[in-house]
Design brief:
Helix content is 36%, strand content 17%. The chain is of the alpha+beta class. The protein has a domain of 138 residues: Mannose-Binding Protein A, Chain A (Roll). Strands 1, 2, 3, 4, 5, 6, 7 and 8 form an 8-stranded mixed beta sheet that branches.
Amino acid sequence: MVRAVDGEPAGLNMDYVNLPAESGRTGAENKGSNAAPAPGQKLLRLVGVSFGLLCILQAGLNVSLRLTLFKSDTQPSPTETMCRNETDKQRQLIGHYIQRGWLYFHTSLYYISVNTTTWQESREFCLQHEADLVIINTKEEQDFTRQFHRLTWLGLKTIEPRKWKWVDGTWLTESYWGPGEPNGFEGKKENCVEIRFFDLENSWNDIPCEDQNFWICEKNVVL
């Protein structure tokens, strides 16, 4: 609207009145690029950010869970740790005896003497070294003990006539007596057993316990 002021011609002094914005043009278009986003756009952005954070949280949780499971798989249980420690001790024990001239075969350590004594003195030596005179439990052990080609005491002795018992208290069930043994040769009191017939699988012989022989000590170890 245009109006004249103080009688001056129209068009010389005018007051300008703001008119409504043209139809079809929004406030955002009039204000250009600095216009604030619409409420709907804010909501979409908020949902997008929340979803991204949720994905990051889920990924972190998965990594943490996998690390926990990996640690539980790789770290031994208390029982496994105890067994490993016991095995290490047994290996150290075996190494200690081997350094002192003992032999390891299957699940036992063996000491083959270099001098001769009576059956009882031989056993006392073994007991002093936390072992005992050898007990034959298998054919493999029988073959092992006769390969040294020495007259050696076994941990076998008769308690009653014809009843033989090992030093661990068990009765003899499987034997490797030589031909015609045991026989109490010439009426002697032959209550102890030696390895005599080296070239035969059945190598045992009964002799008096007071005789002088080499001996074999045995110490059981289990890995």
